[in-house]
Amino acid sequence: MSNAPIYDIDPAAFTADPYPDFARMRVEAPIAYVPQLGATLLTRRDTIHAQEKRVDVFSSYQPGGLMSVLMGENMMRKDGEAHMAERKALFPALSPRTVRQHWKPMFEAAALEIIYGLKPRGVCDFVTEYAMPVSARALIAITGLAEMTPAEMDGCSQAMIDGCANYSGVAEIEARCNAATALIDDHIDRMCDTPPPHSALAVQLAAGLPMDSIRANIKLVISGGQNEPRDAIAGTVWALLQHRDQLASILSGAYGWGNAFGEYVRWISPIGMSPRRITKQDEVDGITFDPEDRVFLMFASAGRDEAYFPNGDEFDITRDTQHAIPFGAGPHFCAGAAASRCMITEVALPLAFDHLPNLRLTGDVPFTGWAFRGPTAMPVMWDT
């Protein structure tokens, strides 16, 4: 085990709001072993940025890790040539050109259909009735699982990310995750003979990847491709409704939706961490790591690192966010980043404010999570 100083957390408080602990750790113990998580956490931006690229030491290959055990060995749990081969096979479905030419019109059509259904009502839970189905409809198209419903897509994603963060081994959480992966496998089987063009299923089949890899990679796309956009859509809207002056500057054209999204995912990173396995003894900033140590790269903490983001606990769309790493920084940089940015900044956010006049909050918006974080409910209303 690493010789990092021990930092104890209250798991419930950490789930409710991990940022106070991150702030203390960056100052007192920027590399610290947290016994409640069974892992050594890296919390400073530059340390994470540097070590994420050293895959010979900080490996993504984790055959005994929760993601590999529960979802199969996907490309995020592979390094080097094995990782790049599968990333290359998936790229045609997620390239900026495919997103722009093929997926964006589908994103827009789905989002408008959802908005037109909501608009006469004047009220909704923005998380479950807008952000969730917008994200899910986009992901159904991208994956190629055309017979899956938005509720199924969202439920499968949530069950898998809960399973991947189930470090305390709760049997009920693991059972829900297993049921979700079985449902995804069933939908993959239904679509294998006629996969929709450009979809993740179609391009991987065309590349000749083994079915075990295809299944694992589809589950990977779902696990990160549903909750992150869902939480970022709802969270960014919540932040702007809490900061009306900043919303006004976007509506006036002084700043763009990309500024709001970039600042939100720096401030409250929907994907808060990425796990790594130490392959050989190594030393970082005076801390010695041993083989098979488990390490968490805390992207959420990096987004508030005082060295780059003064007053980082504040939401400010005028901030320079180029040093934030919410999508990672190394060879495992999020493959779906272009699709996510397009769907959120070019479709979901502008259409919501264009078609729901005087959109406003009507109640509390609770947040939860540290490995994955987002609002669980968001009551809103608008003028009809």
Summarize, please.
The chain is α+β, with helices and mostly antiparallel strands and 384 residues long. It has 16 helices and twelve strands. The model has no long low-confidence stretch (mean pLDDT 94).
In words, what does this structure look like?
By secondary structure, this protein is of the alpha+beta class. It has one domain: Cytochrome P450 (Cytochrome p450), CATH 1.10.630.10. Helix content is about 55%, strand content about 10%. It contains 16 helices and twelve strands. A five-stranded mixed sheet has the order 1-2-8-5-3. Strands 4-12-9 form a three-stranded antiparallel sheet. Strands 6-7 form a two-stranded antiparallel ribbon. A hairpin with a 4-residue loop joins strand 1 (about 30-35) and strand 2. Helix 6 runs antiparallel to helix 7 (about 125-145). It is globular and about 60 Å long. About 50% of the residues are buried. The mean pLDDT is about 95.
Sum up the structure in keywords.
12 strands, alpha+beta, single chain, 384 residues, three-stranded antiparallel sheet
CATH fold category name? Cytochrome p450
Number of domains: 1
Using DSSP, what is the number of strands? Answer: 12
* Strand-residue proportion: 5-15%
Helix content: 40-55%
Number of helices, counting only DSSP H or I runs of 4 residues or more: 16
Helix-strand sequence: HHEEHEHHHEHHHHHHHHEEEEHHEEEE
CATH architectural designation: Orthogonal Bundle
Mean pLDDT: 94
Instruction: Quote the distance from N terminus to C terminus.
Output: 60 Å
**CATH H level, superfamily name:** Cytochrome P450
Mind describing the biggest β-sheet?
A: 5 strands, mixed
The SS-based structural class is alpha+beta
How is the largest sheet built, in terms of strand order?
Answer: 1-2-8-5-3
